[in-house]
């Protein structure tokens, strides 16, 4: 029975993740900060994911396992884990990634010391399917999202577009739950980061505390190496229905940026600065939108495996 609210909630959305899942779960439970909960949301897996999760839930009371019996798409599954969270801070953990033992301690300390910050993130090592290191993400000299001015943070975010791993940082749970979270659209991670950057600074540490995995079945590889990487495939990965299936993703993303800006609590001057930058961003994106439109209307819908 869970009666005391944890410091950190870790949301682990999973679909057919048996190959790497145990390492991800173990990395959460082996954190140096033990006052946490691990919320596993199973998106109707058909492999041994359920068996693995139930084993850990039986062994450790910090593990809470929930299972859908119909796949709702990755977006709904990510958001489900957030809805169930109770901790002061929240982190998503991909089922094929893993944390080093100091992740929670390092990032929670950063947020404790920086009351205005909404998100803390570390450096990230990337490994392949055999745990061989491929690269380290983030060259901090290239971008800085820690400014106290929202328009500067937004310009940095859209100019440098930090890799997706920033979304796997540690976030203030109440702020995250007051946001639209993971929208059912391609680029949902950037839409959420944009929304959070409107609300406050992101704080970075130079320590490597998170390990991301690139393998043949991962979303990142499938969307950069050709093959299944069509816009319709990616959209259906995020959402199980056909909403926005024929809207160019860049259009949808910019629309979400504009809506978030107008709905924010920023003053008129800051909003005006950001809207001006978004106008330029749209102008720079015209060719991309044209290419996306061509692909959308010539590519037949594909079946897919959702996370």
Q: What does the model show?
A:
Strands 1, 2, 3, 4, 5, 6, 7, 8 and 9 form a nine-stranded mixed β-sheet that branches. With 307 residues, the protein is α/β, with parallel strands linked by helices. The longest helix has 17 residues. Helix 5 packs antiparallel against helix 7. Strand 1, helix 1 and strand 2 form a beta-alpha-beta unit. The protein contains twelve helices and nine strands.
Envelope shape? globular
Order of helices and strands: EHEHEHEEHEEHEHHEHHHHH
Main pleated-sheet profile? 9 strands, mixed
**Distinct helical segment count:** 12
Strand content: 15-25%
Quick synopsis:
With 307 residues, the protein is an alpha/beta fold. The chain has twelve helices and nine strands.
Key features?
alpha/beta, 12 helices, disordered C terminus, globular, 18% strand
Task: Map the helices and strands.
Blueprint: E1 8-14, H1 21-29, E2 36-43, H2 49-59, E3 63-68, H3 74-83, E4 89-92, E5 98-99, H4 103-113, E6 119-127, E7 133-137, H5 150-160, E8 170-172, H6 173-177, H7 188-199, E9 202-213, H8 219-222, H9 231-238, H10 249-263, H11 268-284, H12 286-296
Helix pairs in contact: 5-7, 5-11, 7-10, 10-11
């Amino acid at each position: 029975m869970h009666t005391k609210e944890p410091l950190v909630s870790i949301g682990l959305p999973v679909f057919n993740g048996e190959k790497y899942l145990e390492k991800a779960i173990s990395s959460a439970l082996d954190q140096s900060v033990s006052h946490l909960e691990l919320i596993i949301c199973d998106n109707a897996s058909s492999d041994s994911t359920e068996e693995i999760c139930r084993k850990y839930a039986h062994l450790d009371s910090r593990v809470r396992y929930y299972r859908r019996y119909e796949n709702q798409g990755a977006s709904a599954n990510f958001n489900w884990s957030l809805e169930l969270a109770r901790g002061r801070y929240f982190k998503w953990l991909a089922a094929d990634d893993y944390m080093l033992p100091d992740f929670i301690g390092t990032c929670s300390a950063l947020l404790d010391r920086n009351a205005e910050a909404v998100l803390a993130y570390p450096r990230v090592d990337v490994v392949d399917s055999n745990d061989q290191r491929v690269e380290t993400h983030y060259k901090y000299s290239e971008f800085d999202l820690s400014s106290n001015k929202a328009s500067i943070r937004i310009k940095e975010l859209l100019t440098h577009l930090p890799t997706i791993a920033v979304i796997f940082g540690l976030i203030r749970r109440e702020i995250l739950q007051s946001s639209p979270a993971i929208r059912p659209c391609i680029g949902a991670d950037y839409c959420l980061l944009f929304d959070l950057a409107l609300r406050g600074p992101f704080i970075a540490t130079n320590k490597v505390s998170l390990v991301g995995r690139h393998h043949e079945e991962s979303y990142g590889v499938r969307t950069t190496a050709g093959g299944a990487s069509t816009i319709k495939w990616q959209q259906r990965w995020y959402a199980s229905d056909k909403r926005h299936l024929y809207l160019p993703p860049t259009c949808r993303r910019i629309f979400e940026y504009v809506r978030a800006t107008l709905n924010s609590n920023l003053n008129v001057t800051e909003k005006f600065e950001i809207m001006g930058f978004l106008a330029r961003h749209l102008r720079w994106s015209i060719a991309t939108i044209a290419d996306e439109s061509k692909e959308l209307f010539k590519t037949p819908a594909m079946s897919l495996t959702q996370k």
